[in-house]
Amino acid sequence: MVATHKKDTEKIRLCIDPRDLNEALMHPHHPMRTVEEVASQMSNARVFSVLDAKSSFWQIKLDHESSLCTTFATPFGRYRFLRMPFGINSASEVFQRAMEQIFTGFPCAIIVDDIIVGGKGEKEHDEKLKESSQQSTTEYRLKPDPAKIQAITEMSPPEDKAALQRFLGMANYLGKSSQISVNW
């Protein structure tokens, strides 16, 4: 176990080395969705939103036996995770399956921790987004991350080549799964 600071913050992140555990784990073999697969299923959509599940893997509770397998030693004693830690090689498949189960029947697509909503126009998109985010059949609720909203609303136009390249890189990365609209 190693303790380190999270990027750009004073918060502490615990890092474990689960290589031995990963070698012993059996994969659930749940099919992972790709951006290309989702895009082909939403080929008529022109307006998109991508919602990111916060602390994704930590939303999955471990059963007692699985929790015991995540035990790690510190100078203060042994501890174990009660929720799925990052670094477990089957975590993406487990989370993908859980998200698909939660959002079954809702007008959205799931790629691990991204919830993608698309519509032919703004009205259809907004209706699907509202339906997906006000999902009432489970205990889960979608909420936008205020820090991310603030970062987007306070984004200023690029003033030099490097800033423009950063913006274009971000747009290229997000372009496969979302429509980008920035009003400068």
From TrEMBL:
SUPFAM superfamilies membership: DNA/RNA polymerases
Spans annotated as Disordered: 122-141
Known EC number: 3.1.26.4
Ranges of biased composition (kind: Basic and acidic residues): 122-131
Any Pfam family hit: RVT_1
Entry-linked InterPro entries: DNA/RNA_pol_sf, Retrovirus_Pol_polyprotein, Rev_trsase/Diguanyl_cyclase, RT_dom
The Reverse transcriptase domain, residue ranges: 1-172
Superkingdom of the source species: Eukaryota
Enzyme class name: hydrolase
Family note: Belongs to the beta type-B retroviral polymerase family. HERV class-II K(HML-2) pol subfamily.
Protein name (database record): ribonuclease H
Organism for this UniProt entry: Cirrhinus molitorella
